[in-house]
Amino acid sequence: MSSLQEQLLKAGLVDEKKLAKAEQDKNRRANAARKKHGKKGAQPDPARQQAQNKKAQRDRELNQKRQQEARRKERAAQAKQMIDDNRQDRSKGEIPFGFTYGKKVKKIYVTEAQRDQLVAGQLGIVTLVINHEGRRFELVPKAVAEKIRERDEEFFVDLGEPAKSEPDANDPYADYQVPDDLIW
Questions:
Q1: Domain range annotation of the chain
Q2: What is the pLDDT along the chain (184 residues), one digit of tens a residue?
Q3: CA distance 120 to 159
Q4: Residue 91 contacts residue 46 (beta carbons within 8 Å)
Q5: How far apart are CA 73 and CA 60, in angstroms?
Q6: pTM of the model
Q7: Which of 20, 54, 75, 77 could crosslink 151 through cysteines, CB 3.0-4.6 Å?
């Protein structure tokens, strides 16, 4: 029995050029499929596959780190902007106010009204890095200080908590009240 191509050729439905072109197209598709999927029946190289998987995993981890760093920088920029927009003017401050920063006691100069607000917990102290050389401490309202703490803990320093009106029952120094005007 002859092939379909030979039968079509004998019947006069196709000519030699069309058969040759059809054969050529068939070979091109087969070659393209072979290049795309590799040799027919061949198994993918396990070492190459493993290397590709490791590279993809490394790329995902690197991308995740970059995204985390970008989010951290964005939160830091938001915190800096909030500090710049809401800081209190301390240029006329003459009263020293001591607070702890890390393991050190720092001192800033504030006005009497600002000191009262700090003691009452209405103002907070935040830090602002100046060109990687040093830190500047600023006063901001309590609500802004809490938002800054949420954005980036690095900028938050202290939020003066209001003094307790009722002393602790187990406090051995409950009978000795600390004066309100004590400045350390």
A1: 4-30, 49-163
A2: 467 778 877 887 788 888 888 889 988 988 888 777 655 455 667 888 898 999 999 999 999 999 999 988 888 888 888 888 888 888 888 888 888 877 888 888 888 888 888 888 888 888 877 766 677 888 888 888 888 877 776 776 666 665 555 666 777 877 777 666 666 5
A3: 10
A4: no
A5: 20
A6: 0.54
A7: 75
